[in-house]
Amino acid sequence: MTETTEPGNTPARHGGPPPYPAAEFAAALGPRQLGGIYHHHYWRRSYTVLDISDRDPQTGWALTVEWHDNGPGPQPTRHCTPWDPRDQIIHQPTPHATATARRRLTELADHF
After folding, report:
1. SS3 per-residue string spanning 12-66
2. Are 82 and 26 in contact (CB under 8 A)?
3. Per-residue pLDDT tens digits for 37-77
C-alpha cells in the first residue's frame, strides 16, 4: 500500500477507503481545523484537534483530539461527532498551532 500526504489530512492509503463525500465532510467538520481548540457543548469539555481524516475505514471520516480536563494523563480520542451549532470555537489555529498538533499526535501515538 502506498501513502501520500493530503493537505490537512492524514496520509491517504491508495487502495484504502474512498474519501468521504466532500459536502457531507465539510458540513460534519464545521469550522474545526488541525491545531484548533474547541468546546463541545454536550460533554462540556474542550479539545485540540490533532488530526482530521476523510478516509476512516469504519466511519468514513474522523477527528483525533486531545481532551483538556483534569483527568489522568493524555486522553487522545478518535471520533466522528459532527459539529453542532452549540459547540464553541475557543481558538482557531495558526501555522505554529498546526505544527504543534502534528507533533503532539506523534507523541500520543502509543495511547490509541
Report:
1. EECCCCCCCCHHHHHHHHCCCCCCCEEEECCCCEEEEEEEEEEEECCCEEEEEEE
2. no
3. 999 999 888 999 999 988 888 888 899 999 887 655 667 88
Residue in the block written with cell 504543534: 100
pTM: 0.70
Residues 32, 63 contacting (CB under 8 angstroms): yes
Q: How far apart are CA 101 and CA 92, in angstroms?
A: 12
* H/E segment holding residue 79: strand 76-79
Contact between 35 and 48 (Cβ < 8 Å): yes
Q: Using CA atoms, how far apart are residues 84 and 67, in angstroms rounded to an integer? A: 17
Residue 25 burial (CB < 10 Å; 0-12/13-18/19+)? middle
How far is it, in rounded angstroms, from Cα 78 to Cα 51?
9
